[in-house]
């Protein structure tokens, strides 16, 4: 069984009744679900994980969607958030349109769903955060995203920033050092049908040299200095947006103007979780 397979516990039933029970569990998805028997398994109590239980293995592409609902209320809250961001100075309508489309509450624990459309950073797993919507919009606007841009994102986190870039038509390569966050974001983005996002578990300081050069690079954690590897992976004419500093960070936008030439601009002060080397 693949690590990404899902398993559903159901009460033990005689073999001839199992398909009906599966239909009850899967509802409208029963027609597309495929049961996958493990080798040498014969349905019955001797193969149960616990007494009175049989495990059915379902291929991940045919399992019911695990996404939360995106209701009219959520969509209304997103519209209000977009207006708030517009009033705070976000002017790129493509950025605002993407933030109106992508459901931020999908990327949060259900206990925090009511806070999803407030303009504030919120905690996620591994002592990390999902950035404040204004910060996401600001960094994305600085990046001057164009359709079909190849963009490297350093720090996948929840996956929300990658989803915004992908919704704008970019081809996103996103790298995360925390295995737990990487797995969770990859699964969620796949369920959301983002086919233009590729997720990697690795050291963001090193970037992804095997896929370089990139049109744009976005760093979503505070670096003490600009990693040389990221500068080298930027295409001539490309942009790198990165917060630099130890306690608070200055948002930098760096444009590569030649083989060894760069121009740098400063765009205000922010506070990010630190960019760390290595994998976790």
Describe the structure.
- With about 280 residues, the chain is α/β, with parallel strands linked by helices.
- The protein folds into 2 domains: about 5-60, no CATH class; about 70-270, Vaccinia Virus protein VP39 (Rossmann fold), CATH 3.40.50.
- About 25% of the residues lie in helices and about 25% in strands.
- β10 and β11 form a beta hairpin.
Q: Roughly what fraction of the amino acids lie in strands?
A: 15-25%
Described by the principal axes of the CA atoms, the overall outline is globular
Structural class: alpha/beta
Low-confidence stretches: 1-19, 21-65
- End-to-end CA span: 25 Å
What's the CATH class of the largest domain, please?
A: Alpha Beta
Q: How many domains?
A: 2
- CATH topology title of the largest domain: Rossmann fold
- Please estimate the helix content: 25-40%
Write the topology of this structure:
Blueprint: E1 6-11, H1 18-26, E2 53-58, H2 72-87, H3 93-101, E3 122-123, E4 129-130, H4 133-143, E5 150-154, H5 160-167, E6 171-176, H6 179-191, E7 197-201, E8 214-219, H7 228-232, E9 234-244, E10 249-258, E11 261-270
Helix pairs in contact: 2-3
Task: Write a brief structural summary.
This protein is α/β, with parallel strands linked by helices and 280 residues long.
Task: Provide the descriptors you would attach to this structure in a database record.
two-stranded antiparallel sheet; 7-stranded mixed β-sheet; 280 residues; Rossmann fold; alpha/beta; 2 domains; single chain; 25% helix
């Amino acid at each position: 069984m693949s690590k990404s397979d899902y398993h559903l516990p159901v009460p033990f039933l005689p073999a001839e009744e199992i398909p009906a029970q599966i239909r009850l569990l899967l509802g409208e998805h029963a027609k597309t679900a495929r049961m996958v028997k493990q080798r040498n398994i014969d349905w019955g109590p001797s193969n149960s994980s616990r007494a009175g239980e049989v495990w059915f293995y379902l291929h991940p592409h045919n399992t019911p969607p695990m996404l939360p609902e995106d209701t009219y209320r959520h969509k209304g809250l997103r519209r209000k958030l977009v207006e708030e961001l517009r009033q705070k100075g976000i002017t790129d309508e493509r950025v605002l349109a993407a933030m109106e489309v992508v459901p931020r509450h999908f990327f949060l624990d259900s206990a925090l769903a009511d806070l999803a459309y407030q303009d504030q950073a919120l905690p996620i797993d591994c002592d990390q955060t999902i950035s404040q919507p204004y910060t996401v919009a600001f960094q994305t606007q600085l990046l001057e995203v164009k359709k079909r841009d190849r963009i490297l994102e350093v720090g996948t986190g929840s996956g929300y920033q990658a989803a915004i870039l992908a919704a704008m038509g970019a081809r996103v390569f996103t790298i995360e050092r925390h295995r737990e966050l990487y797995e969770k974001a990859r699964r969620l983005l796949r369920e959301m049908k983002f086919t233009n996002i590729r997720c990697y578990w690795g050291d963001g300081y090193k970037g992804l040299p095997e896929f370089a050069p990139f049109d744009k690079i976005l760093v979503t954690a505070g670096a003490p200095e600009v990693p040389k590897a990221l500068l080298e992976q930027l295409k001539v004419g490309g942009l790198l947006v990165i917060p630099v500093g130890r306690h608070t960070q200055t948002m930098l936008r760096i444009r590569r103007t030649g083989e060894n030439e760069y121009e740098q601009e400063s765009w205000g002060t922010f506070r990010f979780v630190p960019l760390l080397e290595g994998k976790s």
